[in-house]
Structure formats: structure tokens, C-alpha cells
Amino acid sequence: TSSYSRCSKNSACGCFPMVGTQNVGICAFLWKFCSHLPPCQSSQDCSEPNHICVHHHRCSQNPVCYPLSMLDENICPPIPTMTNITVTTTTSNTITTSVTTTTAVVLPPVYRNPVLEKIIETNKNLSRLEIHFQNLTDDDMEIVAYYAIRNNQILTSLDLSGNRIGVDGLKYLTDAMLENKMLTSLTLHYSSINENVAKHLADALQHNEALTRLDLHNNRIGVKGAQYFANALQNNAKLKILDLSSNIIGDDGIRYLADALKTNTELVSLNLYTNLITEEGAQHLADAMRYNKKLITLVLDSNKVGDEGAQYLAESIRSNMTLKTLDIRYNKIGDNGVQYLASALKNNTNLIGLDLSGNEITDKGALCLADALRYNTIIESLTMKNSKNVSSTIKQQLSVKDHRLQF
What stretches pass through the bilayer (predicted)? Predict the structure, then answer.
């Protein structure tokens, strides 16, 4: 049935269901001569692309194929996506519908942005497309989805940072990405993505088999957003690099992500820079690292894990056999926390990079770390830049003694 009165058996309009809804139709005015319309195939679809199979009493009893390019938007409401539907009339004049499952046909956007379209056209042969801080809206995302993503076999990386993307805009993008098997990287820095938008993106990830890198630096997904992405990580086997830095996730959000890490077998890099993480969040992550066998890089820069959090992380380093790089700069870690890390380094044979820059380390902590390196020949760099409480004399002595120590 249709909410549009013109769509009836006595009109020249055909009724089609809106995708994702039930009992809601749109009108398409049949303004070509019936003799010009080819019949539908026995499978009730059309051999020619961008045609839809319909039945209308004015065009005999057999369904015909109508070209989408001939829809009259001035008479009938436009629609971005349609599926094939066949309408048959019985002897009792009762109209029944039979929907055939086919690939959705997408029409060009009605909304126009000549500047954006020119940018896309100019860069159509590049594998990377960057459209930064252009004040693009959800309507513009439909243009990006249609012209830059759909059926594009060249584009592998898309950066739309600094634009205003809501749920509708993101839906255009994610729907198009399902049809694109080449796009592997999506960057959305500073895009005002809140938990509602994050939910749609996380849900879409569970059905995307191509995307391997997602960068959401500096948005507002919060605790709920972290929960949505944690669920995606438990159900997505492709994503390898995830950047959720500066997203006010907090310890509660970290708990969800840590639970996902226990079972995720693909993610190799996780960036959680500036997310209000304390020793509680560090404990959640450390516990997850005992089970995770895939993560290589963990960034916790500019949080507040402190000495207690450093102790939890040190314990995970002892048992984890895959982590290669740990970034815990600016985390209020003092000499006590450093001692735990130094002890763990003596027995760790996998970590190649540890960054402790900007913490509250003194000469005592620096000497403790230097001693640990005597037993560890695997680590390639141990960085303590901006360690204001370490004397220049100790810095010079240790740097000369072991080039892996960087101040």
C-alpha cells in the first residue's frame, strides 16, 4: 500500500517500497508509451541496468521494465534507492505485490554542490581523496558516496576530516562502502561524531569486509560509542587499525574495549590518546593483553594511569608475547611505576619500543631503566624525552652508555 493517493490501480503511477520500511510507497509516473517498454524477464527483473520491473493495467497483464532515468521528479517524489517490485492484478481487482530480491539501484543525488563535485572529478584517478574542513553536510555526503565511492575501483583511502557528519550523512557513506571493495581506510577527524553517529558506524563495520583502518581522532563518541565499537570489534574480522584518540571514553568505555580485545583476532593497532584513562582503565587493558595474541601497538599517551596503572601494564608485558610498541607518555608515572616496568623489561623478549616521555621520572627511575636494558637485547628504543626531573648529567651518561636510551 502507499501513502500517496495518486498511486492506485486507476492512475499512471507505479508504487515502489522505500528501502528499510514497510507499507510506505513512492510514486513513479509512467509517462512512456507502453509499446516502448520491454517486458520483464521470467525472473521478474530487467536485463538492462537501471530499470525496474513493474506491472500496470494500462500496459497489458505482463510486467514491463521501466527506466529509472525517466522518473518524473516534478510529479512523483524522488527516491535515492529502489528495489524491484512486481504488482499483479487479480480477477477480483485486488492488488497484490511480490517483491524480488535484487541489487539496489541508486539514483544520482538531487542535491548539487558544484565545488565538491569538481574536487571529486579532479581527483577521480587518485587512490587517496582528501576533502578537509569544507563545512560539508549530510547532503554533501550523498554526493561523496555516489561520485567518489560507489563503483570506484581506484579509491583506497578517504579523508573527510573537519566536516559536519550526522547519522544521515554517515549512512550514505557506509551504504556506498558496502559496494566498494577497494576502500580500506576512512579518516574522520574533528567530525563532531557523537554516540548516535558512532552507533551507526559501528553497526556498519560488522558488515564491511574491506575497511581495515578507521581513524576517529578528536570526536565525541563517549562511553556508549566505545561500547558500540567494542561490539563491532567482536564481530568484525577485518579492521586492523583503530584510532579512538580524544573521544572522552574514560575508564567505563575502556572496559568495553578491553573485553573486546580478549577475543579479537585482527586488530594490530589501537590508539587511545587523551581519553581520561586512569589506573582503573589501565587494569582493564592489562587484563585484556593477557588474552590478546594480535595487538602490536597500544597508545595511551596523555592519560592518567599513574604508578598503579604502570604496575598493571608491567604485569601484562611479562605475559604478552605480541605487543611491540607501548606509548605511555605524559601519564603521571613516577619512579615507583618505572621500577615495575623495568623489572618486566628484564624478562620481555618482544617489546621493541617503550615511550615514557613527559612523566615524573627522576635520576633514580632513569638508572633503573638503564639497568634493565643490560638484560634486554630486544628493545630498540626506550624514550624519556621531556623528563624534567632527570639531571642533565645522568641523561648524558646514560645516552653514551646505551644509544637505545633517548632523552
Answer: none
Query: By mean pLDDT, which of 57-61, 201-205, 277-281, 308-312 is the weakest?
Result: 57-61
Instruction: Give which of 180, 99, 110 is closest to 142, Cα–Cα.
Output: 110
Of residues 293 and 104, the one with the higher pLDDT is 293
When mean pLDDT is compared across 83-97, 239-253, 292-306, the lowest value belongs to: 83-97
8 φ/ψ angles, rounded to the nearest 5 degrees: -140, 170
Alpha-carbon radius of gyration of the chain: 29
Residue tagged 561524531 (cell numbers): 193
pLDDT digits (tens, 9 = 90+) for 344-372: 999 999 999 999 999 999 999 999 999 99
Name which of 245, 260, 194, 244 is nearest 221 in CA terms. 194
250/148 same-domain check: yes
Beta strands per DSSP E along 110-257: 128-130, 157-159, 185-187, 213-215, 241-243
Q: What distance lies between CA 174 and its chain's CA centroid?
A: 9
Mark 80-109 as b/e (b = at least 16 C-beta within 10 Å).
bebbbbbbeeeeeeeeeeeeeebeebbbeb
Cα–Cα nearest to 214, from 183, 182, 191, 239: 239
In a domain, 1, yes or no: no
| Residue 379 within any structural domain of the chain | yes
- Rounded CA gap, 285 and 259, in Å? 8
Model confidence pLDDT, tens digit, residues 123-150: 999 999 999 999 999 999 999 999 999 9
In a domain, 70, yes or no: yes
